[in-house]
Amino acid sequence: PKPVQPRPMLVTAAVSLLLVLLAFLATLGYFHTPQVTVEPVPVTRIRYKHYTGGMQKVGPAFQALCKLIGECNGGKTPSMRMLGLYYDNPDTTPEEKCRWAVGAVEEDLSEEQKEILGKAGYKEFLVEGCAKAVRTQWTFRPQLGFMSILMMVWRCYPAMDKYCKEKKIDSGTSMEYYQRCQKNFLGLSRVPVNLYYAMSKDLW
Fold it and tell me: What pTM, to 2 d.p., does this model score?
């Protein structure tokens, strides 16, 4: 008997699905190789809130911050810079002892927003600058939510850890610095993120 020939429509559908999957992975950053460098960190004054617990709580903490800021802007979160500070390595520190903080750059906040954050327990803090810090970059895609953050963690931190190991750098506190949100010609959002490892303990 003659071999059964695949139906053209099935082949077209399979190719289309493959292309969609590849485009999705590319948008997530799966094919991006983070470039690690050593660069200075500027002095930044922020309004922040300190937390203790597992990393799965970081996302809701950022969402709570955005919601508070949005209360002064008709429910819409304005484009502003935000930071995440992580004092412990979650791979070696018990979940209940992991210390971290989230905050917004004070320069971007109105007086009303500062007042609201103050009532919610956010404190003023000066992030000290330093001449040298291990750094890489990523692009967070808000429309992809948690998956975009997960890909950033999966791709960036191992690259930075490898660099520190090769250069024999004893890294300290890590920082995620989220720049202002940008939109492309299709209206899709992108947020450039700078990730840092302090090259001394307890710098921030």
Answer: 0.83
